[in-house]
Amino acid sequence: MKARVHVMLKDGVLDPQGEAVRHALGAMGFDGIEGVRQGKVIELDLADGTSEDRVAEMCERLLANTVIESYRIEVL
Questions:
Q1: For residues 6 and 69, what is the distance between their CA atoms, to the nearest angstrom?
Q2: Could you tell me if 7 and 69 are in contact, meaning their C-beta atoms sit under 8 angstroms apart?
Q3: What are the φ/ψ torsions at residue 30 (nearest 5 degrees)?
Q4: What InterPro entries does the record point to (predicted)?
């Protein structure tokens, strides 16, 4: 079984990497970009029987900094 964890900065948290990407896109001639948020995707290969609750515990303890980041779990 696989799980994919999407981690993003929470709304209101400054995203300097996203801002750098937005600026670079504008410099390359891509108009109309008002904002960019950058995140990460973590793909886990799980043993059979591993619950989504267990994946959430992994997120809470290591994979996401829950003070400034939110996460979403997708079981594949």
A1: 10
A2: yes
A3: -85, 105
A4: PurS (IPR003850), PurS-like_sf (IPR036604)
Q: What is the CATH number of domain 2-75?
A: 3.30.1280.10
Domain assignments of the chain as residue spans, ordered by start: 2-75
- For residues 7 and 44, the answer to whether their CB atoms sit within 8 Å is no
| pTM of the full structure | 0.86
- What DSSP character marks residue 29? T
CA distance 34 to 39: 17
Which tokens is 54 given? Answer: 């267990």
Token digits of residue 18: 């996203």
Over the stretch 50-65, which tens digit does the pLDDT of each residue have?
A: 999 999 999 999 999 9
Please name which of 22, 34, 17 lies closest in space to residue 69, comparing C-alpha atoms.
17
